[in-house]
Amino acid sequence: MDLGSFSTSLTVKDIHASKEFYETLGFIQTGGDIDKGWVVLRQNGKVIGLFQGMFEKNMLTFNPGWTQTCETLPEFEDVRDLQARLKQAGLDVGTEIEAGTTGPAHFMLTDPDGNPILIDQHV
Length: 123
What we know:
With 123 residues, the protein is α/β, with parallel strands linked by helices. It has a single domain (5-121), classed as 2,3-Dihydroxybiphenyl 1,2-Dioxygenase, domain 1, CATH 3.10.180.10. It has two helices and seven strands. The protein has helices spanning 15-24, 79-88, and strands at 5-11, 28-33, 38-43, 46-51, 59-63, 105-110, 116-121. A seven-stranded mixed sheet has the order 2-3-4-1-5-7-6, with helices on one face. β6 (105-110) and β7 (116-121) form a beta hairpin.
């Protein structure tokens, strides 16, 4: 099972202070809109998303169909197929993606320790 690219999504109290902190660590903003409360920062293949007021907890994020640099893969397992496989394996996959749809979609899992995992397909 290939879940695609990986990033850590952090819930922050002050996005400007958090962005400045991670830039001091060598991360560079490559996406997002700070005025809308989110930015994506990268450093040598490592990806951190900062989100103010969007999520309750920090989470792991996987993006099926993308490389670590957001390039679309020519072949990948669709998020709907991933959701069906995980459901069949007995995991709670949250709200199911509408059947018969294609393209961008997402679902959430929670690991045994309560950590949220977002499977978020953009292609």
